[in-house]
Write a structure and sequence with these properties.
By secondary structure, the protein is of the alpha+beta class. The protein is 28% helix and 35% strand.
Length: 282
């Protein structure tokens, strides 16, 4: 059995647009393409103006491409195409492209990758350890997946978070340990219900005893855990709560509490993936 030759990556430039369009026309897509259409030259030029797209060669022959759409320490894997052969060979090549994309992402200090895919292509990513984000997508019938940039499987971290809203603002607590603003809350102990974990954590962090009858389960958030190893995936049960006139007294590990709009949060703070998911849900 012949060993596949090494893949070579070359950053695409505007001069490569005609080549890219011609290649995509004949290639197989391994990421979602809106309306199932090949991107136009204008769309590719706009992408290359702000993002990065790699051409992948094997034995000096163009065999694939993939792009990174950068955002807040992560990147969406997009424009993933491989030369169209048969299903087995195309998937084998896509598998190699995915490994190269992970290496490039890791070298570029990207914490994790996402990819949007149809269920058929999603099955390809799930077999390689991708986890669904479990959030609404603007394109019905497609799913966003999380991809680890390290060759280790995702490890779930069960947590519970408190969602307190005032107008269009969300209450967040500053963690001195991780130097970032989070939903108040914390980890769920083995055998513990998420609501009980939240009541315990909030009493520890904010000296506030939550009343169970005022807690309402809101949603479940899945996101890479900020400040943890790159293969830790937060599984967070979020509960809505009306603070009313309750008094908060922060503990030593908390640097403060503050209400944020999504815009202010992104502009002034280090965005935490799970917090962004909550803002999107709200």
């Amino acid at each position: 059995m012949l060993t596949p030759s090494i893949l070579q990556l070359t950053p695409a430039t505007s001069q490569d647009v005609d080549l890219i369009v011609d290649f995509m026309t004949q290639a197989e897509a391994f990421s979602f393409v809106e309306k199932q259409q090949i991107p136009s030259k204008k769309e590719l030029l706009a992408f290359l103006d702000q993002q990065v797209l790699y051409l992948v060669y094997e034995a000096q022959t163009l065999c694939g491409c993939f792009g990174f759409r950068m955002a807040y320490g992560s990147a969406q894997l997009t424009y993933v195409y491989v030369v169209s052969v048969n299903q087995k060979q195309s998937e084998a090549l896509a598998d190699r492209l995915l490994e190269e994309a992970k290496k490039q992402a890791f070298a570029s200090s990207i914490n994790y990758l996402t990819v949007v895919a149809t269920p058929v292509i999603g099955a390809f990513y799930e077999k390689r350890g991708a986890k669904p984000a479990q959030v609404e997508n603007e394109n019905p019938g497609v799913v966003e997946y999380y991809l680890s940039v390290v060759n280790q499987p995702w490890i779930d971290l069960p947590t519970a978070g408190l969602v307190c809203v005032k107008g269009n603002q969300l209450l967040l607590a500053f963690s001195k340990n991780k130097q970032a603003w989070y939903l108040p809350g914390g980890k769920i102990d083995p055998g513990e219900h998420s609501q009980q974990a939240l009541i315990r954590e909030i009493e520890e962090e904010l000296s506030l005893v939550l009343q169970e009858e005022r807690l309402t389960f809101l949603t479940h958030i899945v996101a890479p855990a900020y400040g943890e190893k790159k293969n830790i995936l937060m599984q967070q049960d979020c509960y809505a709560y009306d603070l009313a006139n309750d008094t908060i007294t922060i503990a030593n590990e908390i640097g403060g509490v503050q209400y944020f709009t999504k815009e202010d949060y992104i502009r002034n703070q280090i965005p935490v993936p799970g917090v962004l998911k909550v803002f999107d849900f709200l």
